[in-house]
Amino acid sequence: QVQLVESGGGSVQAGGSLRLSCAASGRTFSGGVLGWFRQGPGKEREFVSAIRWSGDNTYYSDSVKGRFTISRDNAKNTIYLQMNSLKPEDTAVYYCATKATVRSRLESQVAEELTHPQLWDFWGQGTQVTVSS
Questions:
Q1: CA dihedral 3, 33, 62, 42 (to 10 degrees)
Q2: Contact, 22 vs 34, CB < 8 A?
Q3: CA-wise closest residue to 92 among 5, 21, 12
Q4: Which of 44, 50, 20, 34 shows the shortest CA–CA distance to 122?
Q5: pLDDT per position as a tens digit, 37-53
Q6: pLDDT of 31 higher than 90
Q7: Which of 2, 22, 70, 105 would give a disulfide with 49, using CB separation of 3.0 to 4.6 Å?
Q8: 94-127 pLDDT, tens digit each
Q9: DSSP letter at 39?
């Protein structure tokens, strides 16, 4: 089992920044990924970003590319999501998740595989991010 605990959510004005943290405990999956999804009011859960448990590969949705940065601190078993230039449409509950294995071999296929929340294995409780205009 894996436990994921998010923190760092809050309210901010458009153009501002927030940094989310996700502390993982329990098992680790060297061949898998850690990442973030979000779910806005009345919307489906959508992929935001992910990073490999091992290695430097990162993945972003088009909607956050260039504004959000994901990083990992192996010593703390923690990942971070630095969110800059926030927009009202970024308002959502942000969930940390981990996927034990990545089936695809080509990076383009990995990116597609990661966008499906039903393929992820463990989830945190979520943290609210609200961006006002």
A1: -30
A2: yes
A3: 12
A4: 34
A5: 999 999 999 999 999 98
A6: no
A7: 70
A8: 999 999 989 888 888 999 999 999 999 999 999 9
A9: E
Give the whole-angstrom CA distance, residue 106 versus residue 16: 35
3-state secondary structure string across 71-113: EEEHHHCEEEEEECCCCHHHCEEEEEEEECCCCCCCHHHHHHH
Question: How much is the CA Rg of the chain, to the nearest whole Å?
Answer: 14
Q: Which two tokens stand for residue 33?
A: 């990924």
What DSSP state is assigned to residue 117? G
Composition of the chain by helix, strand, coil, percent to 5: 15, 50, 40
C-alpha torsion sign, points 23, 2, 75, 70: negative
Q: Fill in the amino acid letter for 93.
A: V
Structure tokens at 131: 């961006």
First and final CA of the chain: distance in angstroms? 40
